[in-house]
Amino acid sequence: MENFINFFKQNVSIMGILIVGIILIAFIIIILIVRSIRLKRAKKDFDALELRFTELKGIPLSFKLNKAVSLSKVNTNLKDDVVSFQEEYEKTQEGLKEYSVLLAETDDFIFSKKIKKANQCINQLEPVVANTSRIVLALDAKLEKVLEQENTQRESINTLKERFRVLKRELMEHRSDYHTSIENLDSSIKNIEEMFSIFEEWMFASEFDKAADKQMEIQVEIENLEHALHALPDYYQQLKGTLTAATDELTYLYSSSKAKGVYLDHLDIDKRLEVIRELLSESLAKLSDVDLPTIEKDIDDLEVRIVSVKEDIDKENDAYVQLHEKVSPLFERVKDLNKRYEIIRELYDRVNVRFGFDNWTARLEKDEVMLDELNEQRFRLEKVISENTVPFSTLFLSYEELDTMVQKLEIECKEMQQRLESACSDEERAKEQMIKLQLIVNEIRIKIEKNHLPNVSEKYDDDLIMANKHIEDIKAILLITPLNVEALNAKIEESIDYIYTLYNSVNNLVGMAIMVENAILFGNKYRSEYAEVDNELTRAELCFNNGQYTKSLKIAMNIIEKLHPGVYENLVKKGVDINEAIQI
């Protein structure tokens, strides 16, 4: 031994020893890490298998099987199925037991860190888990199918219970809103609770059909309770508030309308109001019994009756107001028609022959008959209104009938009066226009004579003769009886066109002659200085004396334009005097 040690010391260095030590330590660490990883993996697989075991154990097979056994006692068709279920249940228990034993062994091996044996147990567990899961889930599905009716009923009844709890809480929180109905509502609550108890008894006895019938009854009662809780406050508000106030307002409206003088006896308002009050009192009493359909019907009936009475009274009130607002103006229109008819009659008698109107005798007699009828109806309507024995809605119809007749006769009288007055105004207008035309013709003659225009063409003399003939024609038409108004108006228009055209022509001629004279007078200042000016002005004077005013003006302005360029433009276009034109 000593020889070995001595040999080792002689042949192995300290560095070599360290290297060997490090390798050994690293190898040991790797082995520990690998074991740790394998152990963690085994624990993870174990935890998953344990969780799956817990899930399978959590399925209430025993409870469901007992339910199925109870159900088979009342339903003989399920007996064979239940026996099969019991056999499968035993298999599930055996599988779960084996599952449990292997889990316990695996847990022990993991705890003692016997990883290899733990993995072997896990491998054994996998087929056991798969088989047990399949058996458990299959049995659970079969039991669920058998118990499906109960589960459905249980879900439905739980929903109803929740609705019932909400309604019960609502009633407790708002008891003051239900007044006299509270006792009946409490009774409904108690009745529903008893029905829930009976339902549970049938469910416990697995009498699902009877439980289903009871559930339907419970649902109906809860719906009725829900409707009552939601509707009753509104019904109290309508009956004690809205409808009672409407009845009081209706009574006041009736009293005030009668006091105003509105005739309402034909409507039996007193009797109809009494019926409304009695129905309102009966409906309030029915609220204690929570007879909702009857109360709803009574409320609808009350609303219809109240609206009907109000509409009838409003109709008479509106007729009363409209009649008193409109009847006086209508009566005034009838009076005006009487006056207008007298004016038409007088005017017709005066102008009938003069203007050759058609024979209006029959027409006037017909209008007179209508006017007499209007007067009679007016007096009759005025009398009935003062007596106040007929509904104003009926009187308003009589008013509208009278108004229609008045409108018709007003149109007739207006048309006749316009025709008569138009004929008279046409004659007066023609006379006034004839005087104006005479004055214009005289003015034309005076302008020609005053300006001593040489060699005025014979046309103007002929034109003056024609203008006077137009005036004489107008006089002739005015002297004829009956007067032909259309021919008169046509002649007036023709004469105006002719005479005004002549007047404008003479004005232009006189204006041009004055311009020629002014131009020659102005040019005379330069005759002694310029021979050309003297010659041109002499030509202008000859043309002027021959009546050639346009040519004369052109000659005179041309020679002046040479002396003063631009004078023509200023004179003609700007319309100024020749001296001013030269200065410009």
Automatic annotation (TrEMBL):
Protein name (record): Septation ring formation regulator
Subcellular location, principal: membrane
One Pfam family named in its UniProt record: EzrA
Transmembrane segment boundaries: 12-34
GO cellular component terms given for this protein: plasma membrane; septin ring
Membrane topology category: Single-pass membrane protein
GO biological process annotation, one example: division septum assembly
Record's subcellular location: Cell membrane
Keyword vocabulary terms for this entry: Cell cycle, Cell division, Coiled coil, Membrane, Septation, Transmembrane, Transmembrane helix
Coiled coil: 143-177, 357-433
Organism in which the protein naturally occurs: Breznakia blatticola
